[in-house]
Each structure stands twice: as structure tokens, then as C-alpha cells.
Amino acid sequence: MLKKLQILVLLVTITAQSQQTVTGTINPINTDYTWAALYQLKGAKQIYVDNVNFENEKFSIVFPENSPSGMYRLRFKMDNQSTIDIIYNQKNIELKLDPSKPFETVDFITSEENIIYHKYVQKTNAIKQNLDAIQYTYFKMKTEAEKAEARISYQNVLLYYKEIQQEFEVNSEGMLASHFIKSNEKYYAEKLFENPQEYLNSEKTHFFEYINFTDPVIINSNVITQAVLDYTFYLNASDDVEVQQKLYKNAIDTVLAKVSDNNLLKSEIVNTLLYAFSQSENLTITDYLQENYYENLPAEYKNDEDINNILENLKIAIGRTAPDFTFNINGETNSLHNLNTAKTYVLVFWSTECSHCIDEVPKLYDYMLNKTNVQVIDIGLENSNVEFEKYAEKFEKWISVLGLGKWENSISKNYNIVSTPTYFILNEAKTIIEKPEYIEDVKAYFEN
Fold it and tell me: Which fold has domain 326-447?
């Protein structure tokens, strides 16, 4: 009996140890917020864990058994403001906050990891802002007296920053938070820079100064990928398109040179950058990344499904050849790529079941009547042909294509249509040259 009791106690203990939670109290009460969701931050990914509704302005989310230690994110709305990042190290976390401004109001009741880390972030952020403000103001100063005073102020604040950084590193020694505190340090030069270009060069040179690209804790968080995105997009900017592309390529080469032989991390960074540049439809850089880095990864570190999803969106990017499709005109089969009737082509994806389309598309027809060397092709995404044919008779100057099956129609899927109306403008070679969002944008193209 005693042996059975010991086994039962052991099982209960193991179960209890595996049921760590993050528990929160909402203060003050805010009826605009009703739920909390938890995500693990791993590289560029936010891996969904669980979500719960508030009960009496409280929530409690259980970490699943075997959840890895590391950085997690609590989300209270689907925006970038209503979130707070927390460190999980196999212990319960209790906090209270205002979900409308969680970072500013969070108060950790338990969890030494989070108490020290968030104190560090809040304190050092204020000091960094002060140092940056002194440098930016220094560039505008006219008199030597002003500059001398600024230099003294900068030295004093910089010394204080170094003391605070050292204090938190010592106090967090042996904790998971220590990894994030060390990686969050920012390099500041011993003296103020006399001109912005020198300052920018220093920022680029020392941007990754304190990020350890070989630390497993940092690798398995979002620290490196977020730093890579910040470095690539915020420190490498130019108004000149050609210069901008060169800056992006140099930034990518710089970042990936730091990864060395860690193919897992390299794959994560390449995928992150591919996704980011695909969102802005930067074909030059996505092609550069794919050809120079992704294709050179060992097979086991390639995720072709992710890459194919990224590249799928780029097939309708500006600069790509529009996907071809066939249609019938007076009983004869033709295709988009075979058309040679105009210098410019406008594709209009619409539906007779879309009230906005019913109002907008006839207006577009009237507007385009007097345009020369322009051919409009309207593709009706429909469940039946009845209403579409009525409009096709009215749009006698257009090529009207019936897309039965609506969203599942092959033309719709090839163009990734998710809403109507959707517009594309092509040149004579059927290259996509514009993707107007509204009818006003279509008109603006032809009026410029």
C-alpha cells in the first residue's frame, strides 16, 4: 500500500510540475479586450500555443507539457501594439497589466526572469533614447559652446548606460534572462559624431556587436531574425532604386556571413528575408536570395513548401509576366498571351454577386470607351452565367471571360484573387506594370 502511495505521489508531482501557467489580471477593466493568446517566438515564426477568454478580468494559459524554455508572446488583439513578450523557464508566471498598453503597464508578480528583464528593457530604453537624442541634436548645433555642453552630457549618460548594463548582466547571471539582456545591449561610440554619415557608418559596423550568433537560446528566439530585419530595412535605405537594391544585397551578404556554417540558422534567415521582400514584391532581391543562398543550402535545410508559397505570391508581382489563360471569342479559342490588339491591357476580376462591382465596373467601362490602344478583359467570377451574360452584352468593347466556380476558378487561383474588383495593368508583352487598388487608381494611371 505504501509503495502504491509513493507511486501516486510521484505521478501527482510530475503532473504538477508539467502544468506551469501564465496567469494575468486585467487592470484597469477594459471591455474592448476579452481574450489572451500565447505564442512561442522561434526565429521569424510565432508558433500558436493556446488562447483563452477572460473570466472576471483574469486569464490563465497552461504551457503544454514539454514546452521549451525561451521567449513567448502574449497577444490581446490582432495588432502589433497589444502584445507583451515574456520569458518562460519552466516556472509559473503571474502578472497584471492594461492590455491596451501592455509593455508600459506590465507588473510581474512572480517570475524573477521577467521581473529583471522587463526592468532592464524599460530602464535601458529610456537611456538609449536619451543618448540618441543628444546625438541627433548635436548635428544641428551651431555654436561650440552648445557642442561642448552636449559632449559632456553624452559622456555622463554613456557612463551611466554602461553601469546599468553591467549591473543587470551581473544580477541576471545564470538566468535565461541573461542571454536576452546581453543581446539587447547597443554599441555607442565614446565620442559624438560630427556628421550623420559617420554616425550611420558606425551604426552599420557595430549593429550586431552584442548578438551572439552561436548562442542556442538566442538562435531559438526571435532576437536574430528581428535584428536582421531591422538592419536590412532601416539601416540600408536610399531614394535611388538602383542604389537601394545594392544596399539590400550588401546587407544580406553581411548578415549571412555572420551565420558561418550554421545551416539551420542560415535557412531561417533566408526564409525570413524571402518572405519580407516578397511582401514588397521586390523581384530583384527575392531572386538574388533564392539563387545565391537558398539554392546553396543542403537539401535537409530547404523547406520547399514554404518557399513555393512565398514564390507563388510573386508570380503576379509587378515585373512578372501575367499568367496566361484561355477564353472563347465567337466560338474561337484564344489566350491572353496571343492577343496583339493593343499596347496596354487591363484585367478586371469582378462578380455580379459583388454590389461594389455592380456600381464600379460599368463606370470603368464608360471611362475606358475613348481610350486608344487599350484592351480591357473582364473576368467574371460567378456561380452561374445568367447575370454575367447580361453585362457581357453591355460591355461590347471588352473581352468578357466567364470564370465559373468563382474563387476556385483556375484563372482566379492563378492570379491569387481574394476580393473583387481586382485590377491588373499589363504592357504589350503582357508584363504586369501596375496593380491598381481602386478604380481611381486605374484612372490615375491613364491620366498621368
Answer: Glutaredoxin (3.40.30)
Domain spans, the chain:
20-110, 326-447
pLDDT tens, 225-277?
999 999 999 999 899 999 999 999 999 999 999 987 899 999 999 999 999 99
pLDDT digits (tens, 9 = 90+) for 400-447: 999 999 999 999 999 999 999 999 999 999 999 999 999 999 999 999
Which residues make beta-bridge pairs with 381?
A: 403
Which phi-psi region, left, alpha or beta, contains residue 41 (left: φ > 0; alpha: ψ -120 to 50)? beta
Q: In this structure, which long-range contacts are made by residues 355-364, counting pairs with CB atoms below 8 Å and at least 24 apart in sequence?
A: 356/420, 356/421, 357/420, 357/421, 360/421, 360/439, 361/391, 361/421, 362/391, 362/394, 363/439, 364/439, 364/442
Q: Do the two domains 20-110 and 326-447 of this chain adopt the same fold?
A: no
Superfamily of domain 20-110 in the CATH hierarchy: Carboxypeptidase-like, regulatory domain (2.60.40.1120)
Q: Greater confidence, 160 or 370?
A: 160
Structural Rg of the chain based on CA atoms: 29
pLDDT at 110: 95
| Alpha carbon separation from 330 to 334, 365, 394, 401 (Å, rounded) | 10, 21, 16, 12
Q: Please report, as a single letter, which amino acid is at residue 410.
A: S
Taking alpha carbons only, the member of 376, 354, 381, 373 closest to residue 365 is 376
The grid coordinates listed for 39 are 505564442
